[in-house]
Design goal:
Layout: H1 8-19, H2 23-42, E1 47-49, E2 53-60, E3 63-66, E4 73-76, E5 79-86, H3 88-103
Antiparallel strand pairs: 1-2, 2-5, 3-4
Length: 105
């Protein structure tokens, strides 16, 4: 089964076709949206998109990990990670697509 990846170019092309703005304007719009989201996350602020989900920055404390090959213990440093919690609407939308696909099999 081949996985399809949504790229920035595909998003820009879709915006161009559906809205009718030039590709340059669509690219600027999309990059501006990503800049806003990134800057909010960099400031440790949540980004909530209605009917989509919430992006949140969480701090992971340092811990001891183990190299699976050598069994050597290594200290994994403290870091921030971005998490995503999908909305119930998105979860239902994704699961309804799975159910619809299963009906046709």
């Amino acid at each position: 089964m081949e996985k399809k990846v949504l790229t920035k170019a595909l998003v820009v092309n879709h915006l161009n076709e559906s809205i009718g703005l030039s590709k340059r304007e669509c690219q600027y719009f999309f990059e501006s949206l990503l800049d806003v989201i990134s800057s909010q996350l960099k400031s440790h602020k949540d980004v909530k998109i209605v009917n989509f989900g919430i992006f949140r920055v969480k701090n992971k404390k340092s811990r001891i990990g183990r190299n699976p090959k050598t069994k050597e213990e290594v200290i994994i440093s403290e870091r921030n990670v971005v998490t995503f919690k999908p909305s119930h609407f998105l979860i239902n939308l994704i699961n309804s697509n799975i159910l619809e696909k299963d009906e046709f099999k």
